[in-house]
Amino acid sequence: MDTLVDGIAAIAASLEVLKEMNEIDQESDLPSVKLKIAELTTALASVQVILATTQQEIASKDETILTLQQNLERQKTTIEREGFLYDQASDGSPEGAPYCPRCHQKDGVMMRLTESERDEFRMECPECKATYAVVARSYAEQRDKPAII
Ligand SMILES: [Zn+2]
């Protein structure tokens, strides 16, 4: 995290300016004091910007961690069929549309596949646009269909 290193450097620079201000004879050298105050103001302004940037980066990483934790929890209740992960119903059977294997393997993201608009025989990931020839588009749909006699 470069911003933290930059922030620490900016704080060190601010402290150095304060140290130099302390060494100036403040009653007889007012222009030097004013110059050091201007330097200190600039240094502290950069610290403020760096801290704000760091706060945004931390918030973004917190969001990523939360998503990955949710995906990890979801994986505990999934079941694999023919290379695809599905939600696991209370009876242990697969339920709903499969998750995108590419997004899961690449980013750890659980993204449900949807029917492809370009090819009726394939399913597509709304995130990475990968398409798959999935045998079971949705186990819930198959289970709910009435048996043909
Ligand atoms: Zn995907």
Automatic annotation (TrEMBL):
Protein name as annotated: Uncharacterized protein
Organism of provenance: Denitrobaculum tricleocarpae
